[in-house]
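Researcher: Here's the sequence for the chain we discussed earlier.
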Amino acid sequence: MKNFKSLSLVAVILLFGVVFLGYSSVSSLSNQGTISKETVFDFYNKVQFDQTKDQVDTELGILPTESAQLKNAFNYNEEDTGYGVSIILNENGLVTSKTLIYPTSKDIAFLTTKAVTQEQADKITDGMSYNEVKNLLGSEGTEINGTQIPFEDNKVSYIRVWINDDESMIRVVFGTDGTENNVMFYE
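Model: Thanks. This is the structure I predict for it:
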C-alpha cells in the first residue's frame, strides 16, 4: 500500500509541474528585496481545505484561470508579483489540494535560510519525521503543497522544499502520518 501511496503523491507532484508552466515571466522581485514571506504566501494561506470555489473566489478577490491540463483545477495568480495558489476541487466542489504558485524556484530561495546539499538529501530516510528532516537540513523548508488523501480519510500530505540560490533544491513529501516518504535532490 505504501508504494501506491508514494506513486499517488508523485503523480500529484508531476501534475502540478504541468499546471505552473508559464508563470516564469515575472521578474525576480524577491531577489530585489521587494517580496516578503507574507507576499509569497498571501493567497496560499487564505485558501483552506473544504472551501468551495465561490468561497475561494471571495477570499482572494480575483477570478481564476481554469487549468487546461487538470479537471476542477484553478489558478489564482497575483499579476503584480507572480505569486499565487492553484487549487483542485473534489467531486463535491470542495478544495482538496492547494499548491503555491511562484515565478521561479529562485523567487522562493530566500525562504531557505541555510544551503542544502545532495549529501544531506542522501541522509533523509523513509519514515523520518518532519522535525528530524528540519533538524538535519537546518531550517523549516517551504511548504509548497498540501493535498487531502481520500483513501486516508482526507488526512493531508505536504510537500516542502529547501532551495539554494542557484536553484538546486531538496524536495520532501511528507505523508499523512507526518513522516517522509519521498525525497529528491535537484541540481
